[in-house]
Amino acid sequence: MKTTLASKILHYIEDHKQFTMSDLYREFGDAYKKHSIRARVYENLKGTVIRTGKGSYILAGAEIEAIVEQADSRKHVFEIKKANIFYDLIFLDVPYRTGGQRGGGSNPKRNMADYNLIDPEEFGEILKAIEGMLRSSNSQVYFMMAGGKSSAPQAQRYIRMFDQTSPQCNDIGSYMKLTSTGKVCNMAQHDMPPEIIMAFSTDGKVRDCTDDGSYRLDFALERPKLARYGGYPTAKPVAMLQQMVAQATEKGQWVLDLFAGSGNMLEAALGVGRKAHLVEICSNAIDNFILPKLHAFHEGNLARRIHRPTLFDHFNFAGSAHV
After folding, report:
1. What is the pLDDT of residues 209-219, one digit of tens each?
2. Is 63-319 assigned to CATH 3.40.50.150?
3. Which of 4, 12, 121, 132 is the most buried (most CB within 10 A)?
């Protein structure tokens, strides 16, 4: 039986995972014309190959467990959308402009990252992009926002941005920060209000992938280590993130965290057999929090940084030894 050019190209990129069009020309150019090679990539292999940049591609479905990118998510989300990558859970803990906000911005005491706070209108544009990146109508978007009366009016401005998109709220929960002794954390002698957790999906339905029906969206957990003790300022508990991932996705499915910060989502997702795509602009967060987790998970043997001008500015793979 004659092997088609499309089959040959697919076998090639299954072995190489990431490739440029020039690589294919060198491999098959003696037997096929360049326009035939391009046509097989653009047409026959559509949905199999992701275009990551001019003349550069990656095989969708290759055994890649994690992608870590250093980029500004406010702009980069549109590049991801153009690449036709789809996710089963998108986690949003954005640097919002309200009381208790995740850092950055104009307050030097809360300058936790190398970017300014995101306005509700900017957040709305991000939401418009990600609604086209959900794999199915039941794929979930989990959104976290500061709670408390002082934050409520501004928080509602962000929440209302969902009204301009197709995902509908299907559940609301909370995250209460506790001390190591189990008491509610306080701020200026007052108990800290819990953060709001909201779940959205296009079909408006909760997704529970747990085997034992242990779905939940309310958490009271010990707060991760504070920044002054070497922690990341806005880190969320791995146990909470792991529960979110386990209930919203099946094993092997993809999670996107556009504001990765501490990288705890990476640890949570890989820990339950999911694949993670993290985007973070802050070099400190990438180098001192996220990459150490990536290397620790694979004992430093299966992660490598690829320096090339593709869609992925920081393209870090953890997965097949062939990557």
Report:
1. 999 999 999 99
2. yes
3. 12
